[in-house]
Specification:
Blueprint: H1 2-31, H2 34-41, H3 45-51, H4 55-65, H5 78-95, H6 97-106, H7 117-136, H8 146-168, H9 173-188, H10 191-194, H11 203-207, H12 226-243
Length: 245
Amino acid sequence: MPQPKQDRAIRTRHTILMAAATVFEERGYQAATISEILTTANVTKGALYFHFKSKEQLAQGVLAGQDQNLTVPPQPCKTQELIDTTMLHAHRLQTDPLVRAGVRLTLDQRADGLDRTAPFQNWTTIVTNLLTQAQQQGELLPHVNPQETAQILVGAFAGIQAMSQATTNYQNLPTTITALLKHTLPTITHPATLTTLNLTPNITHLTQNTPDNNETNDDSENTEPEEQEKTETTETDTKEKAATH
């Protein structure tokens, strides 16, 4: 029946992505190999290549994964919603290997040939939109340029999380992010709004209604048959054997 095949395809893709995340986080993009990812995932070559045609596609899947599950409960105060989103991402860096691997790839300057711009662009868009809404509601000081401020905040967050990873393996990240917000928010936020902000939101509250998007689907997964995995495995092995003769 189609539904079991779709479910299996989603699970297989998720297993491969998590295995790739483990290898990319530990080894980096250049040093990681498809063989290591196959071993970690414990899937066939056919299964992997059905979903991802190359190591670059695997890396892009991991990069996209770090931006999922970022939805927080809407807040009347959009500056508070920005704080909540930032703290949720910090929490996920501590708890979600897919997010950690995505950040590792985003900041990996030796990842030649890998387009790492999307996460920065996505984060800048999220922050710009929240700051624009905050400005429209009178929460920000008159001089604030939402897009310019978003670029500064995203860049600062990237640096803070990189330092936290190197020094404490993200253990001090919530503390350092709170310190960053304490230093930056007074320069952009109206005093009346500033006094209402909570810099230590309840993470349980932020995550309890978050949808699980790690097992996303696409059209290529809807028809993944078991025979396809076997066929592609045979074809791949045949090509490899031929190449040795």
